[in-house]
User: Fold this.
Amino acid sequence: MYADEQELIDVAELYRVFGDKTRVTILYTLTEDEKCVNDIAAALSMTLSAVSHQLRILKQAHLVRYRRVGKNALYSLSDDHVRTILEQGLEHVRE
Assistant:
């Protein structure tokens, strides 16, 4: 397998984003179905501001996406790769 310098930097940045328990918890919450910021905040007992900040980081890393429904934004995992990373991480730590 070959990876150039920029790809290695990008992978390191991806894992940095996964290195935060709050962000991983948000991602795990979104494996069930899409949710609005209010629902995520309630599920994690966090403020809307704190959840919004973490979602911004997850969006920048292309790990979550959102769609507008009226005044609400519904968040979901960007794709099945994110779900696979979470599943493989859990499988690894459970071994």
